[in-house]
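Supplementary Note 3. Input sequence used for the single-chain structure prediction.
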Amino acid sequence: MIGEVGLAGDIRRVNGMARRLSEAARQGFTIALVPPSDDPVPPGMHALRASTIVAALQYMVDIADHRGTTLATPPSHSGTGHVPLGRGT
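The predicted structure, written as discrete structure tokens, is reproduced below.
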């Protein structure tokens, strides 16, 4: 996860998001849990965008339950559908 969690449970963008995503991709991560933004995502990386800690936790539970398969975006999140899971190949 890259971001800041507010007292109300909202997930906020932090400075240097593009740089942080690039470094995560360089380290072999293929998924990043981030707040909604227009920040570019490096090739080969998928950004799971969550605006609240509840949505972020739902992603994490789904990842744990379906490790190595696919993940459907939580109903409360308007996303693109399914993304592959995992770190590196």
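The two ends are 20 Å apart (CA to CA). The longest strand covers residues 31-34.
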